């Protein structure tokens, strides 16, 4: 992305947002100050406010950046997997790989960055909650479609299954923050998928 004006000069927005993303990922929303952001992004406060409107604007721009880069594995899985069973398998194993990546602070930015916000910033946590719930709802729709098509058993409970996967994935994120490595999380993914007893179907 091209640079934007910033108090008489330009800065690379994508590069700046990458640094903001890591700051929020490491310290959380409330633990990241404007001073921390300007230092990480290598811009001054007037440039930050001019370009993003403030800390919250930087945060959600960084969330968008995360979803388009480091955190895009979920969107890609939903776009590329035809059957729910393979989608679930991929989400679990990709989460294990992504969340335990040692080049990142660990876990998922959307899950961890606003876990313990105060009431004054509850709307920030609510927006992230809505993003997470949207993924669970979309997974429910995909499972439902396979039940209707006869790919999954008629007694399968799509909402319950999607909720289970959401809980596992969010738990994997926290375990990664606590130091669980990729191998450990992949074993969680394997055990969880096998417990579901879903048969991977042909995508033809």
Structure, explained:
This protein has 204 residues and is mainly alpha-helical. It folds into two domains: 12-67, Homeodomain-like (Arc Repressor Mutant, subunit A, Orthogonal Bundle); 72-194, Tetracycline Repressor, domain 2. 66% of the residues lie in helices and 3% in strands. The protein has ten helices and two strands, in the order ββαααααααααα. The protein has helices at 13-27, 34-41, 45-52, 55-68, 73-80, 84-99, 109-112, 122-148, 158-177, 182-196, and strands spanning 4-6, 9-11. It has a two-stranded antiparallel sheet. Strand 1 and strand 2 (9-11) form a beta hairpin. The longest helix has 27 residues, at 122-148. It is elongated.
SSE layout and pairing:
Blueprint: E1 4-6, E2 9-11, H1 13-27, H2 34-41, H3 45-52, H4 55-68, H5 73-80, H6 84-99, H7 109-112, H8 122-148, H9 158-177, H10 182-196
Antiparallel strand pairs: 1-2
- Name of the CATH homologous superfamily of the largest domain: Tetracycline Repressor, domain 2
User: What fraction strand?
Assistant: under 5%
- Unreliable residue stretches: 5-9, 200-204
Order of helices and strands: EEHHHHHHHHHH
Helix percentage range:
55-70%
The total strand number stands at 2
CATH A-level architecture of the largest domain? Orthogonal Bundle
- Specify the biggest β-sheet: 2 strands, antiparallel
CATH topology of the largest domain, which one?
Tetracycline Repressor, domain 2
SS content category: mainly alpha
Q: Strands across the major sheet, in which order? A: 1-2
- CATH top level of the largest domain is Mainly Alpha
Mean pLDDT: 92
Count of DSSP H/I helices: 10
End-to-end distance, in Å?
38 Å
Coarse morphology: elongated
How many domains, in number, for the residues?
2
């Amino acid at each position: 992305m091209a640079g934007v004006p910033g108090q008489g000069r330009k800065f690379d927005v994508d590069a700046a947002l990458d640094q903001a993303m890591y700051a929020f990922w490491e310290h959380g929303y409330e633990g990241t100050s404007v001073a921390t952001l300007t230092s990480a992004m290598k811009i001054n406060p007037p440039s930050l406010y001019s370009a993003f409107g403030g800390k919250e604007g930087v945060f959600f721009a960084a969330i968008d950046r995360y979803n388009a880069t480091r955190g895009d594995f979920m969107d890609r899985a939903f776009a590329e997997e035809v059957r729910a069973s393979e989608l679930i398998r991929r989400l679990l194993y990709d989460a294990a790989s992504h969340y335990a990546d040692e080049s990142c602070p660990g876990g998922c930015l959307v899950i961890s960055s606003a876990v313990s916000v105060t009431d004054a910033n509850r709307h920030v946590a609510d927006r992230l909650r809505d993003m997470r719930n949207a993924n669970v709802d979309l997974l429910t729709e995909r499972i439902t479609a396979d039940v209707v098509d006869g790919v999954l058993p008629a007694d399968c409970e799509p909402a319950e299954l999607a909720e289970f996967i959401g809980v596992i994935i969010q738990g994997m994120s926290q375990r990664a923050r606590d130091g669980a490595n990729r191998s450990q999380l992949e074993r969680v993914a394997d055990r969880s998928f096998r417990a579901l007893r879903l048969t991977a179907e042909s995508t033809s």
